[in-house]
UniProtKB/TrEMBL annotation:
Name of the molecule in the record: Trans-aconitate 2-methyltransferase
Reactions the enzyme catalyzes: trans-aconitate + S-adenosyl-L-methionine = (E)-3-(methoxycarbonyl)pent-2-enedioate + S-adenosyl-L-homocysteine
CDD domains in the record: AdoMet_MTases
Pfam family, one: Methyltransf_23
Presence of keyword S-adenosyl-L-methionine: yes
GO biological process, any: methylation
Family stated for the protein in its record: Belongs to the methyltransferase superfamily. Tam family.
InterPro entries documented for this protein: SAM-dependent_MTases_sf, Trans-aconitate_MeTrfase, Trans_acon_MeTrfase_C
Main localization (coarse): cytoplasm
This enzyme's EC code(s): 2.1.1.144
Location in or out of the cell: Cytoplasm
Cellular component annotations (GO), alphabetically ordered: cytoplasm
Matching PANTHER family: TRANS-ACONITATE 2-METHYLTRANSFERASE (PTHR43861:SF1), TRANS-ACONITATE 2-METHYLTRANSFERASE-RELATED (PTHR43861)
Length: 253
C-alpha cells in the first residue's frame, strides 16, 4: 500500500527529475496530456498549469494515491499502465518513476510509441540505482530467516531498468526521434535515519505490505544500521544519498 504522506516527505527531491524530464518536451498546444502513475497529483497539477488548454488524463494503480490526487482537483482514475492505450488525441504521455515496477516495461513503451499519432511525445524516467548500497542492504535483510518466508514472492533483482541507449534504440526503431540520458542526483538529507525514511516511501512499500507491524519494525531496526554504514552522516548532520536516474524523451515522427 502506498502512503501519499510518506511519499511526499521528500517531495522536492522526488519532483526535480519530473521537471528535468518534462523540460525536454516541446509540445506547444497538446490536446490531451496523460500522466501514467500520477501519484498524489502534486506534479500532475503542474501539467495543467503548463498546458491549460489540454485535457489532463491521470492514472495510478494505488487508490490511496488517486484519492490524494483528486483532493488536489486532479481528475485521476485508478488503473493499470499495462492496460492503458492512448486515445486518438493524445499528444503527450508522461510516466515518472513508474515503469520500473512493471516487468518487461520496455515492450510496453514500444507499444505506446507505435500507438501514438505522429508528432506525439512520450517521456519517461526510471530509477537506475538498483545496484546501490541501499538496495543491496534491503535485499540482504529480506533474505534473513526472520523475513525470508513472508517476503519470498518479492522479485528482487539488480537488472530492473535498461541503460539509456537501450531505450533509445528501441524507440528509434519505432520511428521516434529520441533524447535519452542519465543523471545521478546527490540528495542532501537530514534526520536520524534519512535514507531509511526515503526508501520507506518507495522501494520498501512491497516489504512493508507483507509484514505485520511488529515484523516491519524489526525489519527497519535491522536495516537501519546497514544504511547508516553505507551512507554515514557528515559531522554537520547531513547525509548525501546518490541516486541515479534514467530519462527518455521521444517524439513520434
Amino acid at each position: 500500500m502506498w502512503n501519499p504522506d510518506v511519499y511526499l516527505a521528500f517531495a522536492d527531491h522526488r519532483g526535480r527529475p519530473f521537471f528535468d524530464l518534462t523540460a525536454r518536451i516541446d509540445a506547444k498546444q497538446p490536446r490531451r496530456v496523460v500522466d501514467l502513475g500520477c501519484g498524489p497529483g502534486n506534479l500532475t497539477a503542474t501539467l495543467a498549469q503548463r498546458w491549460p488548454q489540454a485535457r489532463i488524463e491521470a492514472l495510478d494503480s494505488s487508490p490511496e494515491m488517486v484519492a490524494a490526487a483528486r483532493e488536489r482537483g486532479i481528475d485521476a482514475a485508478v488503473g493499470s499502465a499495462t492496460e492503458w492505450a492512448p486515445a486518438a488525441d493524445t499528444d503527450v504521455v508522461i510516466s515518472n518513476a513508474v515503469l520500473h515496477w512493471i516487468p518487461d516495461h520496455a515492450e510496453l513503451v514500444v507499444r505506446w510509441a507505435r500507438e501514438l499519432a505522429p508528432g506525439a511525445w512520450l517521456a519517461f524516467q526510471v530509477p537506475g540505482n538498483f545496484e546501490a548500497p541501499s538496495h543491496r542492504a534491503l535485499q540482504e535483510v529480506a533474505r534473513r530467516d526472520t523475513f525470508a518466508e513472508a517476503l519470498r514472492d518479492i522479485p528482487f533483482q539488480d537488472k530492473v531498468t535498461q541503460a539509456p541507449e537501450v531505450y533509445a534504440g528501441l524507440l528509434t526503431d519505432t520511428g521516434c526521434a529520441v533524447d535519452a540520458w542519465e543523471t545521478t542526483y546527490v540528495h542532501e538529507l537530514t534526520g536520524q535515519t534519512p535514507v531509511l525514511d526515503w526508501i520507506t516511501g518507495s522501494a520498501l512499500t512491497a516489504v512493508k505490505s507483507r509484514l505485520s507491524e511488529e515484523a516491519w519494525q524489526q525489519y527497519r531496526a535491522e536495516l537501519a544500521p546497514l544504511l547508516v554504514q553505507a551512507y554515514p552522516a557528515r559531522p554537520d548532520g547531513r547525509t548525501f544519498y546518490p541516486f541515479r536516474r534514467i530519462f527518455v524523451v521521444a517524439r513520434k515522427a
